Each structure stands twice: as C-alpha cells, then as structure tokens.
Amino acid sequence: MSLTTDRPPLQAPPHPEPRRPRASRAAVGILLAYLAITLFGMWWLDIRPAALVEGFEDIAALLQRMVPPTFGEPANLVALALETLWIAIAGTGLATIASVFLGAAASRHFSGPRILGWLARGIIIVTRAIPSLVFALILVRIVGLGPLAGGLAIAFHSVGMIGKMFADVFEEQDPAPREAVAAVGASRAQNFVATTFSRALPSITSIVLYRLDINIRASAVLGLVGAGGIGVALQTAIGSLDYHRALGIILVIVVMLLVLEAVAYIAQRSLAEHAGEHTAAELYGPGPTRATPGWNRSRILRVGSGAAVLVLFVFSLTQLLADAPRLARVWENTVAVLSGFFPPVFSLDIAYGIFESVIMAISATTFGVIIGLVIAVLSTRHLIRFEPLSLALRGLMVLVRGVPDIIYALLFVAALGLGPFAGFLALAISCTALAAKFFTDSLVKVDPAPLRSLEATGANRVQVFVSGVWPQFVPSFIGNSLFTSDLALRESAVLGIVGAGGIGFLLEESVATLHYQTTAGILIGLIAVVVALESVARWARRKVI
Amino acid sequence: MTVPLTQKAPGMADKTPAPNHARTVSVALSDVSMRFGDKTVLKGVDLEVDAGQFVALVGPSGAGKSTLLRLINGSHRSTGGALSVLGVNPATCGRGALQRLRTRVGFVFQQFGLVGRLSAMENVLMGALGSLRMPRYGISSYPRELRERAVANLERVGLVDERYQRCDTLSGGQQQRVAIARTLMQQAELVLADEPVASLDPNASVSVLQTLKKLSAEDGFTVICSLHQVELALAVSDRVVAVREGSFVLDAPTADTTEEQIRAVYAQAERD
Hints:
The complex is a heterodimer.
Chain A: H1 3-6, H2 22-44, H3 49-66, H4 74-106, H5 114-129, H6 132-143, H7 147-171, H8 176-182, H9 188-219, H10 231-239, H11 243-277, H12 297-320, H13 330-340, H14 348-378, H15 381-384, H16 387-402, H17 405-416, H18 420-444, H19 449-456, H20 461-492, H21 504-512, H22 516-544
Chain B: E1 3-4, E2 24-36, E3 39-50, E4 54-58, H1 65-72, E5 80-85, H2 95-102, E6 105-108, H3 120-125, H4 144-156, H5 172-185, E7 190-194, H6 202-219, E8 222-226, H7 230-236, E9 239-244, E10 247-253, H8 259-271
Parallel strand pairs in B: 4-8, 4-9, 6-7, 7-8
Antiparallel strand pairs in B: 1-2, 2-3, 2-5, 9-10
C-alpha cells in the first residue's frame, strides 16, 4: 500500500483546469487525420525526397526540350482561344439562368411544392460533385466533338456551384420586403422578381464574374477530351511529341487566363466599390413626362452593361450552335447513353481508383497548405516588411496559378511517366498556389494593432506571429485549407484522363469503350465520396469556425 | 366591398356612436383566439370596426397586437372563433381568395419592407402587383396608367421629387411614407399598420401618422394601427382598443378615453 492512500483526499484546486474547448479538439482531430492520411499517401504514392529530386531533374530536362516555344499559325491559336472564351461565357450564362430557379427552389424560404425543393437540392449536390471535364467526356458522346459539348459541360458543373451560392444569398436576405409585397396580394413569382431577385442582383453579378474566371480556366483544358477550345491544340501537340508547340500553346493559355483574370478582378472591384458607396442616389434622370423615367449616367451604365452582357451571351451561344446538323441525333444519343447507365456496375477497380484520387488529393493538400502558408507569410508585407520578396512571390504565384492543374499533370506524365506520382505533383503545385493566395488574402486582413503592441514589448518576429497573428488567422486558415482540399478532390478525379493516376483513367476508358454501366458506377461512387467529404468539411467548419 | 351589418355578433361591444344611416363593417371578429404551441396569444376577442374608422391598438409588447393584425390579413390563421374581413374569412379561404383579399387590405410595417437598392417609385409600383399578371422589373415594365398613379401617390405623401432616388438613401420617415404610398397603390379599403412609427424620431412619427390620418379621411379607408405612443394614439384615432395578455381591456371612442386610462394598461402589465 502506498503512502498516499493513507492520506486524506486532496482538495480540488480552487480554479480547476478548464477543459479544452470542443472547437480546439476538432481542429487537432482534423490536423491529425490529414497528417495520418498524408503519411499513408507518401508510402502509397512512393513520395520520397530522392524520388522528388529525380522527378524535378526529369521535368527540367523536359522543359529544356520545350524551349524555344513555337506558335505555328497565330490566327489558328487566336481562333481556338476565342472558342475557349465562348465556351466559358455560354456555359456560365446557361448555368446562371438555371441557377436562379434552382437557387430559389433550394433556399429555405421557398414556399412552393416541397418536392421541387428536394429536386433542386439534389441537382445542386450531384452537379457540384461531378467535374466539368467528366461532364465533357459524356457530353462528347451525346452532342459530338466540339465546343457545344464543352459549353454544356461547363454549364452542368457550374449549375451546382452557382445554384448553391444563389440559394445562400436568397436565404440571407431580410424577409421584411418579401412579407410586405406578399401582403399586397402579389403572386410568388412577382414577389420573387420584385424583392428577392432585385436585392440579390449585386451578389449574383459578383458570383457570376467569379465563376466566369474559374470557367475560363476550366474551358481551356476541355479540348483534352475533344470538347472544343484551345486544349485540343495542346493535346495534339503533346500527342505528336511537338513540345515546342506545346509550350507555345501553354504560354497562350497562361497569357489569356492572366488577362481575363485581370479584367474580372477590375470588374469585381468596381462593382464592390459601387455597391459600398451607393454612388447613384438618383437612379433615373428627369424624363419627358413625370411618370416616364429619363436617362442619367447611372441608368445608361446599368442598361448598357446589361445589354452588352446579353449580346455577348447570345453571340457565344450562336458560336456553340454553329454546327446544328449534328444536333439532330442528340435525343437518340442521350437515350442511348442514359439507358446504358442502368444498372450501374460497381467493382474493386472503381473503389481502388476513387481511393487513389482521395489519397492524392489529401496528400497534395497537406503539402500545398504547408508550403502555401510559408509563401503567404513571406509575401505579406506587414509581416516580413521586405517589399521585393513579397512582390516576387506574389507574381510567381499568379503565374503558377495561371496554368491549369491538368496541364501540369500532362507535363509531369511526359517527364516522369504514367501514374499517381505525376498527379500528386501537379495537384501539390496547384494547391500550393491556391492556398498561398487564400492565406495571403486573409493575412492582409489581420488586425495589425496586436502585432504592434507585442513588438513594443520586445517580442521577436516568431513570437509576434505565434501570439499576435496566428490566433486571428486560424479560423480562415482552417476554412481555406478545407476549401483547397475540396477543390483538389474534384481535380484529382480527372487527372487520370491524361494518365496521372486516380479514377479519371477508368472513367475515360469506360466512356471510350461504351461501358456506360461502369461510368455510372464511377459517377455514383464519386458523388458519394465528394458529398461525404463535403459533409465532414462542413462539420469541421461549424466546430472550428 | 364592405359588409352591411345586419345583426350584432354575440359578445361584441358596440362602443362607437350610433350613426343615423346603415353601418358598414370592415372587420368583425367574434370570440377569436390564437395559440402558438402551448402559448395562447389571443383569448377569445370580439371586435367590430366600422368602415372609415381609425382605430388605435395600444398595449404592451407581446400583448397580441401584431398577431391580431396578422390574423386580419391572413398571415396567421386563427385557432378559434369567426372572422370577417371585408366580407371574407381569411382563416378559411383558399390561396387565390386570400391573394384577392390582400389586394384590398394594405399593410404598413414597422420596418417599412422596402427594397433599398430600388427607387422610391419602383417600390410604390410594387403595391399594384396584385392587380397585374406577370412579374415586373424596372419602372418601365409597369403600365403608364399605374406609373401616373404612383407619381400622384408619391405627391400625396410629399415625396414626388424623391421618386427616382434609391430608397436606402431616404430618411426613416421618408421611407415609411414611401411604404404608405405603396399601400395607396392598392386603393385599399382597409389599412393595417403594425407600429408604423416605432423606428422613427418624434417629429417623423407625427408627420407619418398625420399623413396616414389625412389619407384615410380623404379616401375613406379604415385604419387599424398598433401604437405605443399614447399621445399620438389619442391625437390621430377615432377609437382606442387596448390589449393586454391577449384580451381587450379597453375599447372606447377616443373622445371618451384619457391618457391615464391607457397608461394604466401599461402599468398593470409591468406589475404583472
């Protein structure tokens, strides 16, 4: 018997140690899960420092073979670049129109038949989970090769993304105007247009611009599966081992994406400024009669930009529909493909492919988030205070983000051979660039007052970061990391199309060999995994943020 | 359409002066009650409001004033008793009939219920949506005749010069007057106002209620207006109804009601 047992029980301390809050435990849990999966992934994908070094040597050798770039006939490339733009605009426009209805039906305030609400939510979940490149693979079989398949693929995937965001916007609105207009006896449709849609218009514009930016990036690679745009030329160049031309095309894609990103950024910024300042207190000018509104700068801008968008959208649609005779067989092909889906076939190969995609995505996210965090800290001016480094890193990240993941995958497959290692590297690079951008945006918004107070106490830079910056930054760090992981998962599902591992290879093969039952099995598995991981991420966000 | 009163419902108080011609009743409530789960918000209340009357509904917060107004416009369905609003029972009529009834019943909200980024004119035009078929967006999408009426109604509330201004750049008092002009577009026979001046400063409150009173006198519509400001209630109404804990504890012509009587209702509620 030990001495302690004879002693009277110790009194509880006056201030017991507080229990670790649940949010903190959830954060540690997520972190450990990601690390554990990444360690497993490193073993599974054979990611060793030596392999990485060897890989980079091979990539450098390939890049040497690509220089100098050639552009062939510039007019041809410009035509393909424009086709890419029409695909993105038409797809985004179609998705926006559909999303207004879907978002309205999916929002909590929807007062119509309940089944419509469920249906809308179902469509949003399914289309969000399937990447546009996968839609393109299937649509090429239905509407034939070319930009129409691309435009529709962009539209189908974007419906889920935009519809969800619209539903959130509609839900967040103050119900007072809606109740007031319902009280005058307006119908549901009248009330929706007058109060819900009219109030959501600035947010809708902002969401659509943001999505257009993403869709231009996505449509640049749809040509890899024959769905139109500049990606067709890239696929041909790499397939024929013409690496000089491949580099030329990649440069055209990057420049095009950077220019359009700059245009979208300027448009979004001017929109945000306009919304914040209420610059136009007078929405109309004096008209010819008291009851007829006249024209002023604000109305000309509103109506003019609306008309320009409409003209651009209709023109891009006509470009997609240029090859109308092929459309005659659409119905027949749709029935053939959709009836071919039943009954879906599930197999161990499918499970293995999806598992490999998930492992690639999570491992790449972990690497991307860690390296991205370092880059973000180094490129945040008020943390490092070395302007040239911040500018250089930001510029580099913009360039790196300019290249779509699947193009990295194409290059790595050419340099390192087929397999998930090439896919992992491609994803890790794009995750790094994406995470660095998200983190830099958040770090810039950190309140500098606590930092200055800590510096005044003599704390060093690391101490200032750990005590002054990190606590403010951690919610957005976790939120953005989960979002990066979400995007990586969708991307990893398509990298197999170019042979970079994961389920994409089996998916493409099943469509190419008309084994649609396998395609259906893969799609169902993919949707289930994406929805499950999204639910985990949503739970984690709720707990931690 | 208003209903000629042929017989008095049992238990209904008749405290208004007897007119020398046939009375028409806009609203008739008989033993109306309302429960939300376990909570009884209205306990078998009776009320008859003559056409053209301005009734001030007073009483502490949570007494059941807002619930009463929402029962009258059909936003809530009563759990007991009989209602007649312009000859229709909003608790039992179908969706279409309720929509038609609402085109005849105006509602003025405490929080105005305006779309801030649209012009005053477009918000006023929304009051006519019940008489139109299709959704509308933008002033020019409304028929010319309605646009002219909207301008005339904005003129009546003193805001014709602000008709093309964004609503969220107007003052609180101006916004509430836009909301009243929206109600005028309905050419309503009955206007319900739920604490319409609770968010306004004293001067704006007086101005808004005077406007409502003037328009009611000119157009002959009935007003039932819930208010917390005792002096204002006595200044604008023909009749005062006080509610406490879901029951009517005072129902009298304003001329026979004193400030002390109303304050006593609030004081009693505080003691409870």
